[in-house]
Design brief:
Length: 122
């Protein structure tokens, strides 16, 4: 059965909210959500102390093909880096930045991967 786009968006929003709550319980502060540009979308932008964190939230109903965390491949990473560059051009900061991934499995397990990848161009 195919899911409609609306259901997929609602599911994504639910998981992004769960990821946000998970990170806030660990001391991060919310900055922005769903920052879109031509290069892509940043699911969450958070502050971890003096660091600006770009967070990619991934959900997979199955661990098949490596699961949620494995779905952030080099191509996706490049899009996130480009989107973060655009975000920073609109919201300049002197803060160091990093890229994290929050992977959520079908059973509700949340895996927070700090420094999931380097933001330097490949």
């Amino acid at each position: 059965m195919l899911r409609s786009r609306g259901n997929k968006q609602a599911t994504g929003a639910r998981h992004e909210e769960a990821a946000r709550r998970h990170l806030e319980r660990r001391g991060l502060r919310f900055v922005a959500a769903n920052a879109r540009c031509r290069q892509g979308e940043l699911d969450l932008v958070m502050r971890d102390g003096d660091t600006l964190v770009f967070v990619e939230v991934r959900y997979r109903a199955s661990a098949r093909f490596g699961g949620a965390a494995a779905s952030v491949d080099r191509r996706k990473q490049a899009r996130l880096v480009a989107a973060a560059g655009y975000y920073l051009s609109r919201h300049p900061t002197d803060l160091p930045c990093r890229f994290d991934v929050v992977a959520i499995s079908a059973d509700g397990q949340v895996q927070w991967i700090r420094h999931a990848f380097d933001g330097a161009p490949a």
